[in-house]
User: What shape does this take?
Amino acid sequence: MRDLPGGGQVYGSFSVEEYRPAEFKVAVASERKQYVRGESMAWSTEADYLFGSPMRGAGYRWYLNRNQAGFAPPEHDGYVFADEVWWWGDDSGGSSGFVAQGQGKLDLKGKASGTVALKPPKMRGPESYELEVTVTDISRQTISSRTSVEVISDSTRWRAS
Assistant: This one.
């Protein structure tokens, strides 16, 4: 209970469920860390029980989201290139949110892979894409892992001289 200004009160409660330690681990990786708009991102995931066996046939789901990002050229600390308009709350660019999702079963080695096209309808600058893979075991415990990549609008990549 908490007293509010003006004499009101707020009540709340919550339940603490039984803690279950993780019984397996999940890893996800992309083939590269940077892509050009229109390319397809290749990714792979792997899940193993903590005692070493692969999670054969376990179900997984994946989600891909994107957000605007700045570009920090390598070996030039302190320099970031970005569209400052979105920093001030202008969300009219449409360059954030849900991109794609899917599901499947891990193979006999506890692995899966896929590709997803990186074709945003509109880009105002570099974007960060985050892929999250969630694996569910037979007891319905879920563990997730994430990786992120940068997507640029053309094939001109920064080259330090």
Observations:
- The radius of gyration is 21 Å.
- The chain has a mean pLDDT of 84.
